[in-house]
Amino acid sequence: MDRGVTDLGGGYTARRITLESYREACARLEDRIFGGNWLYSFGPAAKAPPPLGENFSWGVYCGTELVGWSHAHQRDERTVYMADTGLLPEHQGRGLYTRLLPALLETFRTAGYTLVQSHHRATNNRVIVPKLRAGFLVQGLSLYEGGLNVALTLSLDPAYQEAQHIRSGFRAPDARGARGEAARRLGLEPAGTRRPAPLPPLRLPESSGPGEDLGGGYSLHPVSYEVYYDIYTQLEQSAYSSVSFDWPAPGRLEAPAGRRYAWLIGHQGEVAGWQMSRQWDRRTAYMVNTALLPAHRGQGVYSRLLPVVLRALEAEGYDLVRSHHHATNNAVLVPKLRAGFCLQGLQVDDHGVMAVLMLSFSEAYREAMHVRSGLLKPHRTRGAGLGLTSRKEG
After folding, report:
1. What mean pLDDT, rounded, does the chain reach?
2. pLDDT tens digits, residue range 182-203?
3. Which of 120, 131, 161, 311 has the most beta carbons within 10 angstroms of its beta carbon?
4. Is residue 211 part of a domain?
5. What is the pTM of this model?
6. Within a domain: residue 181?
7. Nearest-CA neighbor of 296 among 332, 259, 267?
8. Closest Cα partner for 238 from 267, 203, 202?
9. How far is CA 233 from the centre of its chain?
10. Which residue ranges have biased composition labelled Basic and acidic residues (predicted)?
11. pLDDT for 275-314, tens place per residue?
């Protein structure tokens, strides 16, 4: 990308511009791009900004017209910070950000950086999804003058990336490849590389019925909780490589009462995976457990079953659907965010560092969360449920 013009397809190009050109473009166009965001106004700054360090600015062009930009600058001896990317509204929704991102990351790699960081409003899935697909990981949430931000980090060092999976509990350390190097750098003894012997395929129980077609030979079958749990206990070790805290004894109390909903995923008459949800509270369903056996991953099955499960939970009367996932498990976070879930928290529990996701079936609630995050300004209808009304609208 540094050697000239990068073709982004569809008549769009990107090329390096000066810091002054980037700042001029911001002054001229940023209100058209970011004018709908909700910010706190600090007023004039009392201190001069710190030295910027090495910086990278690009212009995005449609023909000869500048329609957007991306700006990044050095944060420390190994980190570059993607501070600002914007596209005019009429050029959004065309995949430009996704096509631009690899070229930016290759520039940072060539420049010698190890980590790439960025912050985005926590409900801005249009930016978060392509970042996660590019390998960024969720690393935190912060409340700042622009709202609620999610912190993302991409490691250009495979061992560090694996170290984050180990820290989150998503993967166990072992002696192989980047995971072995990650274990060494974390000061851990790598786990043995032996895996449980694969179990023979399990046939779908006769009680599961015909099910709903998910395409590609897959189907989703509602079953009783007891049938699901029997399958789950047999196949759990084959489905997960995550590491949970090993409690020394079973829980002493009964599980809380509530409605439960279970499905088996079938393929050619055999069990390919499962989904179990339960009632969380009076408004909320909790998607507790979804798994696909290794041979059935990477084929879009999870993305196709999500709408079916969500329709079923909405029909049961729930307003919200909640789920928790390892914070580095982008293979699940991406389809969840694309389905309309939003990041609403991080928690540390016996399973690891978990991202909390929430989906609402209510458009008014979704808009309220965009207001909370600062992605949208409040107005009469959008802020009414929060007790917020834009001053300009009385």
Report:
1. 91
2. 888 888 877 665 555 667 789 9
3. 131
4. yes
5. 0.90
6. no
7. 267
8. 202
9. 28
10. 173-187
11. 999 999 999 999 999 999 999 999 999 999 999 999 999 9
Query: Which residue, 333, 288, 332, 363, is CA-closest to 125?
Result: 333
Question: Per residue in 142-168, pLDDT tens?
Answer: 999 899 999 999 999 999 999 999 999
* Helical pair 330-338 and 301-315, crossing angle rounded to 10 deg: 50
Classify residue 134: in a domain, yes or no. yes
294 within some domain = yes
Tell whether the model's pLDDT for residue 36 goes beyond 60: yes
Q: What is the CATH number of the domain that holds 82?
A: 3.40.630.30
Residues 104 and 226 occupy one common structural domain: no
Q: What amino acid occupies position 166?
A: I
- Distance, in Å, from the CA atom of 134 to the CA atom of 128, rounded to the nearest integer, reads 10
Q: Which domain holds residue 328?
A: 207-245+256-373
Domain count, the chain: 2
DSSP 164-202: HHHHHTSS--BSSHHHHHHHHHHT-PPBP---PPPPPPP
E-assigned strand segments in the chain: 6-9, 12-16, 55-62, 65-74, 79-87, 115-121, 137-144, 147-155, 212-215, 218-223, 260-267, 270-279, 284-292, 320-326, 342-349, 352-360
Tokens describing residue 272: 């390919």
In this predicted structure, the answer to whether residue 393 has a pLDDT above a threshold of 60 is no
Same-domain status, 19 and 96: yes
Distance CA 276, CA 225 (A): 8
The span from the CA of 137 to the CA of 164, in Å, is 8
Contact (CB, 8 A) for 117 and 152: yes
- Same domain as 217, residue 157: no
Q: For position 114, what pLDDT does the model report?
A: 95
Mean pLDDT on 38-48: 86
- Sole residue written with tokens 């209808």: 381
